[in-house]
Write a structure and sequence with these properties.
Layout: E1 5-7, E2 16-20, H1 26-32, H2 36-41, H3 49-65, E3 68-77, E4 80-90, E5 98-105, H4 114-130, E6 137-143, H5 147-155, E7 159-164, E8 174-180
Parallel strand pairs: 5-6
Antiparallel strand pairs: 1-2, 2-3, 3-4, 4-5, 6-8, 7-8
Length: about 180
Amino acid sequence: MPIVLRAAPTSVAPGLLLRPWRDGDRDALLDAYRDPVLRSWTSYPVTTPAQARAFLHRSRQGWAAGRRFSFAVLEPGADGERLVANVVLKEVIPGRPYAEVGYWTAAPARGRAVAPRAVDAVSAWAFARFAAGGLTRLELLHQIDNPASCRVAEKSGYVFAEVLPARPPFPRDGHRHVRRGG
């Protein structure tokens, strides 16, 4: 049975549906990456159909390996569900106490609490699913010059932990935020 998560609606935004990426998401993925702001913050932009196919293939591989779990975040609309974000739980290794959460938000969804709600849903799922395997901490990393990601981290229960020196793929210093399970 496929994993489906939900994030509650707010007074100004509908609820969210989070599910593994599907091949049919290719066009929506390409549309999201047409945004120059999104491309500027991501290490591997998706700008061609071949890159979109590779993204979706890696997503399936991650789920199959049980180490990387990418969720398409969808919002209901008059014309059906619309892609609004991506949240990924990565580097899940049995016995290791930590993993990393990453995300991006499509341009039309920014400023409507999509990212914090989606990150919170995936974080809660991660602790419920992997605590028995030793997961006690999730980390959210972002470049220091991205204050919007600081706000997302704080709103989704991640506490600022430290400044990290620049290292590939991050060209600038970064922040590490931490959320503990339990």
